[in-house]
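Build the 3D complex.
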Amino acid sequence: GENVEQHPSTLSVQEGDSAVIKCTYSDSASNYFPWYKQELGKGPQLIIDIRSNVGEKKDQRIAVTLNKTAKHFSLHITETQPEDSAVYFCAAREELTGGGNKLTFGTGTQLKVEL
Amino acid sequence: ETGVTQTPRHLVMGMTNKKSLKCEQHLGHNAMYWYKQSAKKPLELMFVYSLEERVENNSVPSRFSPECPNSSHLFLHLHTLQPEDSALYLCASSQDLRENTEAFFGQGTRLTVV
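Done.
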């Protein structure tokens, strides 16, 4: 099955700086990689995703890059703001034995944006 | 809100109790999931339902029993739990099980087993 590793586990940045979170995956067949943001007391929410036929995707201050050869993908947040403080999870989608697909998640990164 | 509602938000139960977690989605989705979220661990997929049929049981102990009476509702019945079962239990739904369909999560039930 798929194994997803995520680093770092905690990350502190100053407001306005950039933040980068990195993930690696093991199953070369995985082809969909979403990123989720989980704020305190809430469930994870999708913020951006990337498919294996694309190397980079950007949505305002958030961007994701994918290197299929190396089997790693990264989340980049520019001009960080206090409201970016949350736990971020990467995930990779793999096939279920019974058909369909499932997400395998990383361990999460606690991002703290300091004033 | 994501359209996925979980109740209760918090639950404290003894090891001999029986309780149920409820999840309801208002998105018209056909697939629903239970995840367990423990501190410093990845989200662990427990069960997957598609069109009310269970398609995945990720080696979950029998003290956790899911039920999906229709495509909008998902339950997790709990009995004789252990303290290590204390965690945040998250429900999610997606349009179906095809590739690249977004999963929407509920806010979770914080379970404490005493």
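The CA atoms of residues 64 and 78 of chain B lie 5 Å apart.
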